[in-house]
Write a structure and sequence with these properties.
The chain is α/β, with parallel strands linked by helices and about 200 residues long. It has one domain: NAD(P)-binding Rossmann-like Domain (Rossmann fold), CATH 3.40.50.720. About 35% of the residues lie in helices and about 20% in strands. The protein has a seven-stranded mixed β-sheet, sandwiched between helices. It starts with a strand and ends with a helix. The structure holds NADP nicotinamide-adenine-dinucleotide phosphate.
Length: about 200
């Protein structure tokens, strides 16, 4: 299993890569424009974490993570964690999701924001696209909607999502206020139990 983390050197993907590398044998691809692996992940104990060059604004670079796993005979990418670039118009993310669908990726976790409902402008458009793909093609998705600050509990929650079978369940929506975080997910009970235990 291979997980592609966009925003690879950022505040959520770097700790996520640590957690995944420390606790699982999954291959983790860290995607960013610089295409670097943060110093803290450079040790041999993090050899399953690989940096790849990726730019939301350079469609040619979207192929890089897929080429990387093929060239290294790693397992194909099956999960993608989506972190938007710092921009209002993020519609290119929908095109990338469609691109990844063509490569048979079926599971997506989107980092959005509490203000953005599905269908709203900007990240809401990406949320709406995932919902549509869920209905039309059975895509599995979760949207994380932090309010103001991405703390450790949000990273822990994303980790849980990426390593659990939660995306394989029936779709329901929920609002979980305890963490100042809204999660619109494919399943409720398991997620709620997890968050209450944090
Ligand atoms: N931080 C918060 O408290 C908070 C709260 C709510 C929502 N959010 C959302 O979280 C997202 C930011 O996530 P974060 O805090 O984990 O990241 P971050 O720390 O802001 O880092 C941004 C990451 O994205 C990469 N990046 C920037 N522009 C890119 C581009 N054009 N193409 C590819 N990669 C690019 C950067 O690496 P390179 O520079 O090497 O490309 C870096 O790895 C935003 O969408 C924001 O709306 C954040």
């Amino acid at each position: 299993m291979t997980i592609l983390l966009t925003g690879g050197t950022g505040k959520t993907s770097t700790p996520l890569a640590h957690r995944l590398s420390d606790r699982t044998a999954q291959t983790v691809l860290l995607a960013s424009r610089k295409g670097i692996k943060p110093e803290t992940l450079s040790g041999s104990n993090h050899s399953n974490v690989h940096p790849v060059t990726f730019d939301w604004y350079d469609r040619n670079s979207w192929q890089n993570p897929f080429d990387y796993v093929t060239s290294r005979t790693l397992s194909q990418i099956d999960y993608i964690y989506l972190v938007a670039p710092f921009a209002w118009d993020v519609t290119m993310m929908n095109d990338f999701i469609d691109f990844a669908r063509e490569k048979s990726v079926n599971k997506f976790v989107l980092l959005s924001a509490s203000q953005a409902e599905a269908g709203d402008p900007s990240l809401g458009q990406v949320h709406g696209h995932l919902k549509k793909l869920s209905t039309e093609q059975g895509v599995q998705w979760v949207v994380i909607r932090p309010t103001w600050f991405i703390g450790n509990s949000v990273v822990q929650t994303i980790y849980f999502l990426l390593t659990s079978s939660i995306l394989q369940k029936t779709s329901v929506n929920t609002k979980l206020k305890a963490l100042g975080t809204r999660i619109q997910s494919t399943q409720y009970g398991e997620m709620e139990r997890h968050l209450l235990s944090l």
